[in-house]
Amino acid sequence: MREKHGRNTCLVHRDGARLLAGGGCPLTANSRAHSRRQHTEAEGPVEVDLKRLEGEDDGIVEVLMCRLKARNALGHVFVSQMRELLSTLSNDSAVRVVVFRSLVPGVFCAGADLKERALMNDTESDLFVHGLRSLMTQIALLPMPTIAAMDGVALGGGLELALACDLRTAAYSAQMGLIETTRGLLPGAGGSQRLPRMIGMTLAKELIFTGRRVGGQAALEMGLVNRAVEQNQTGDAAYREALSLAREILPQGPIAVRMAKEAMNRVIVVTEMCLFQVDIGSAMAIERISIPDVCETL
């Protein structure tokens, strides 16, 4: 499999790639690539990048998360870069499947950058949370199938990012959870709405109320992930499983797949556990109103 993606030079990643000295995205030893955007010292390291696969995997695009020092925490730069990248994918008919993966060992995404948020005033914080919610909606509205490959921890906003994807794979060793209540917060980017739709209201309430973390096997059993596998020596078993799943989707009719996704996303599932459902936008608005109140309890 040949690949193309862009960056400068760097440190070390265990799959043979080199991470940028500032904690940015990698270059494989044999890649021949030009940057998606021109990188300069003034801009700082790239925290999110794209890799377009070639050859038999042409049509698969990977979103690479590589904020090494902050464990892919959802900070302003990280969110802005990802939103910029996703905007380029929405209207690209050549993209058949998108895989979200981390290049930080043992981590998918550690959640919102609370250290960064603590330095914001109310207006800045409100704008940041709005951008975070918009990112999750942007992921969910991508017209092609999306897969989150969780080879490590996916907590809080990190799990919300995975929930916004269509499909999820995980290593057994991965840890997942909406842990906001353990910090006196609420899931602020749609997690309190997407999780119940995925695993059922009763179980979702239990996980959110307790802030419990679950491993890959438990996540598979409850329907939180589609596939779970033993972690390998290179720490990318979930990614390899996601790539295998993407390859199963790749030969199918692209228009049919996109239309199937749109049709399913329009369906509101009513279960015995929920007499009515609030649309995702309204639910996220409720979360937005609640967050300032619970922050006062910290």
TrEMBL record:
<dbReference type="InterPro" id="IPR018376">
    <property type="entry name" value="Enoyl-CoA_hyd/isom_CS"/>
</dbReference>
<comment type="similarity">
    <text>Belongs to the enoyl-CoA hydratase/isomerase family.</text>
</comment>
<dbReference type="GO" id="GO:0003824">
    <property type="term" value="F:catalytic activity"/>
</dbReference>
<dbReference type="Pfam" id="PF00378">
    <property type="entry name" value="ECH_1"/>
</dbReference>
<dbReference type="GO" id="GO:0005739">
    <property type="term" value="C:mitochondrion"/>
</dbReference>
<dbReference type="InterPro" id="IPR001753">
    <property type="entry name" value="Enoyl-CoA_hydra/iso"/>
</dbReference>
<protein>
    <submittedName>
        <fullName>Enoyl CoA hydratase domain containing 2</fullName>
    </submittedName>
</protein>
<dbReference type="GO" id="GO:0006635">
    <property type="term" value="P:fatty acid beta-oxidation"/>
</dbReference>
<dbReference type="InterPro" id="IPR029045">
    <property type="entry name" value="ClpP/crotonase-like_dom_sf"/>
</dbReference>
